[in-house]
DNA sequence: GCAAATTAATGATTTATTCAAG
DNA sequence: CTTGAATAAATCATTAATTTGC
């Protein structure tokens, strides 16, 4: 609840002593590039160098660079947490008793979960994270990715995904037409569908060392 | 390499042998509705549920839903990004007409600060977990910081900038202009201005409370 | 009007980053 | 410092729109 509405600098005070640094596109581009290059906490010297360079594109001080990196780093971290927490929270709310994919129901250790699984790696915050979801989705992956052929053809990738159209998402989402055509069959192994042509090359990326 | 699937399967052919999913209007409608409701990266379970529901309107698999959300999210962001950039660009370029500010187009986590100072690198939550940063920031002034107050918890960082220079700043970043800039005054330039014009208001920044 | 040709959308894959646990 | 986990960005590929010549 911090009022940050510090003066509404009229859109005309560009050269004036604005209250804050106003990074230009070029400046941001360079900063992000540096960040991507691995710079997280630049040294004083680096900051000076960067500042010197960025000054070509507009007024800037060392502190701006310093803060930029600090904020960017912090923001990147929190971005994840908050993001995932946000929608989880939302989803959970509309989902009183979350359908925790019962671990025992899993076919075997041949995990066949979804590829997108969970979002939150490990929030860790003092919030009651939702381990259920983590487990539900986290189980997947790391199945077996045979086919050492690195080519583009992935034969039998992990067939994680769909167990079947089970479940009720939520009336709010689909109205009442939700057909609970889901038995209890659970994941009868990756029984595949009739089509049997389901290959999920989802997260197969592993080629790059 | 590819089969000649001359299957002339006009829109609405569920038995299609097409190589890729072709969503029906109903499916798209539901998906967009879910997206509007905030679902961005559905969990495995959600995907199954959604898929189940969407199957009423045509053949579909979990991966299709997964991809749909991925693509839709990415493209929405892309569109929005472009939009907001255009806005800022115009705004920064000059301040002629306050265009139709599209609230939805504003970047959510961009550090871009328009002349209006609308975006602030606000870390938000537990940003107090960076006490060192303060110190580091203060340290930037180095020799000139003749105002040794503040600092609640001083470890020993009161020295030079960062202790861990993560990342190498090389010429490849800026070319030769960098070296020339760093070969001398280092951080003296900003840290030591007599007029205090640029004296890092580091602590002021935070002092705002 | 209708198809071949061309362009715009968008489904499906691959690649690059990021944070953080070990 | 290395590696695991999980995207999001970038890219490839195929389908739908549309444009154009007849």
What key attributes describe this structure?
homodimer; 209 residues; mainly alpha; Arc Repressor Mutant, subunit A; 5 helices; 33% helix; DNA-binding; DNA binding (chains A, B)
Query: What is the quaternary state of this protein?
Result: homodimer
- The total of helices of chain A stands at 5
Q: What shape does the CA trace of chain A take?
A: globular
The third-level CATH topology of the domain at 25-93 in chain A is Arc Repressor Mutant, subunit A
The average pLDDT of chain A is 48
Give me the CATH architecture of the domain at 25-93 in chain A, please: Orthogonal Bundle
Rg of chain A (CA only) = 25 Å
Cα separation of the termini of chain A: 46 Å
Element pattern of chain A in H and E: HHHHH
The proportion of strand residues of chain A reads under 5%
GO biological process, one term (chains A, B): plant organ development
DNA-binding region (chains A, B): 16-80
GO molecular function (chains A, B): DNA binding; DNA-binding transcription factor activity
Keywords (chains A, B): Developmental protein, DNA-binding, Homeobox, Nucleus, Transcription, Transcription regulation
Can you characterise this structure?
Two copies of one chain form a homodimer. Chain A is mainly alpha-helical. Chain A has a domain at 25-93: Arc Repressor Mutant, subunit A. In chain A, 33% of the residues lie in helices and 0% in strands. The first copy, chain A, contains five helices and no strands. Chain A has helices at 25-37, 44-54, 62-93, 131-138, 171-174. In chain A, α2 packs across α3. The relative contact order of chain A is 0.10. The model of chain A is unreliable at 1-14, 86-173 and 175-209 (pLDDT under 50). Chain A binds a DNA duplex (22 and 22 nucleotides) through residues 36, 76-77, 79-80, 116-119, 121-122, 124, 138, 141-142, 152, 201-205, 207-208.
């Amino acid at each position: 609840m911090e009022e940050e509405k510090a003066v509404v600098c009229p859109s005309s005070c560009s050269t004036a002593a604005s209250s804050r640094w106003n990074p230009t596109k070029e400046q941001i581009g360079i900063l992000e590039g540096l960040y991507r290059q691995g710079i997280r906490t630049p040294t004083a010297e680096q900051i000076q160098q960067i500042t010197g360079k960025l000054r070509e594109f507009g007024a800037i001080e060392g502190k701006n660079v310093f803060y930029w990196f600090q904020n960017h780093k912090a923001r990147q971290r929190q971005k994840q947490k908050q993001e995932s927490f946000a929608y989880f929270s939302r989803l959970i709310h509309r989902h009183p008793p979350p359908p925790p994919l019962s671990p025992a129901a899993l076919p075997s250790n041949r995990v066949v979960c979804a590829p997108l699984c969970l979002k939150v790696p490990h929030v860790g915050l003092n919030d009651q994270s939702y381990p259920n979801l983590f487990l539900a989705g986290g189980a997947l992956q790391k199945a077996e990715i045979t086919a050492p052929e690195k080519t583009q053809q992935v034969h039998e990738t992990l067939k994680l995904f769909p167990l079947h159209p089970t479940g009720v998402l939520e009336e709010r989402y689909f109205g009442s037409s939700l057909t609970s055509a889901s038995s209890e069959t659970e994941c009868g192994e990756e029984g595949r569908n009739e089509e049997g042509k389901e290959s999920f090359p989802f997260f197969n990326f592993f080629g790059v060392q």
